[in-house]
Design goal:
The protein is α+β, with helices and mostly antiparallel strands. Helix content is about 50%, strand content about 15%.
């Protein structure tokens, strides 16, 4: 093991990548931080020299995530309403080794088995060699290759066929906020795809739709109803952001409920709306804004 200072420097150099890996595995920023902290504690106890710290730490984090996913899946079976990943905001300038997974693709990963998810993320997203993935998952290389191939088929189906330019996507997000706040069904009708799906995650803590809202007609009635019920100033945008590669914003509802909204856009139309309202998933948002979490 390197001297304490050197060991710390080695770990800290890997921390951002390890945190991204754990978040992509778990869909929870808070759980990812716990996993990386656990990996740090294990790293401190390593006695023998480690030839490749990056591979070794990736192995630890992946295995910790697989253990965490067992209990997480049990919790999600009793989760109230739709489950969405914790919103992760993109940095203004992405690091060179940042991945290109969007929130839509994160949702596709939820349909994979834990081993499929790990094989795909390690091999296809983080560029880990197949032999090292096999060692990490304690599986033969041909089996790992099949795991990654099955996962790839699921995920590729969720990739947008014609990605929209960032400036255009951000413009649509701003226009969507204004139209949804105002209940402007004419403007919304021009922005929403016919088969648009709205997902809302309140976790049983705050009011949210337990099931997805599907189709443009239901979505238009929803936003018109919110405007009639709560008046012209029922929602206020706090900050435009990009959430897991998708355009979106942080907003406040009736001065009480903080939420994030992310939009998946294809061919110039919004095909999916992802709204996170669960206060447990928004604590880091309040910290980022240096504001209390106005939820109770």
């Amino acid at each position: 093991m390197p001297p304490p200072d050197a060991a710390t420097q080695l770990f800290e150099a890997q921390r951002p990548r390890l945190l991204r890996l754990a978040y992509r595995m778990l869909g929870s920023l808070s759980e990812a931080e716990d996993v990386v902290q656990d990996a740090w504690l294990r790293w401190q106890r390593v006695d023998a020299a480690v030839e490749t710290p990056a591979a070794y730490l990736s192995r630890i984090v992946t295995r910790l995530c697989l253990d965490t996913m067992k209990s997480a899946r049990v919790r999600r079976e009793t989760y109230v309403g739709a489950w969405l990943p914790e919103p992760l905001f993109d940095a203004a300038e992405a690091p060179d080794d940042a991945d290109d997974l969007t929130l839509t693709l994160m949702m596709a990963l939820e349909r994979l088995s834990p081993l499929e998810r790990a094989a795909f993320l390690l091999h296809d997203v983080f560029g880990v060699g197949l032999a090292e993935v096999a060692t990490t998952l304690d599986r033969a290389a041909p089996a790992v290759r099949q795991l990654a191939a099955r996962a790839r088929r699921h995920v590729e189906a969720a990739r947008p066929r014609f990605p929209v330019a960032q400036d255009e996507a951000d413009r649509i997000a701003q226009a969507f906020f204004a139209a949804s706040r105002d209940g402007d069904t004419a403007a919304l009708g021009r922005m929403l795809a016919d088969d648009v799906v709205l997902h809302s995650d309140g976790g049983g803590r705050v009011l949210a739709f337990r099931n997805p809202i599907r189709g443009i007609d239901r979505a238009l009635r929803l936003f018109a109803g919110l405007r009639r019920k709560f008046g012209p100033d029922w929602a206020r945008q706090v900050s435009p952001v990009r959430i897991d590669g998708l355009p979106g914003y942080i907003s406040e509802e009736r001065g009480q409920i903080l939420q994030t909204t992310a939009l998946a856009i294809e061919d110039g139309r919004i095909v999916a709306i992802y709204i996170v309202r669960n206060p447990d998933k928004l604590r880091h948002v309040a910290l980022m804004l240096d504001a209390p979490l106005p939820l109770q």
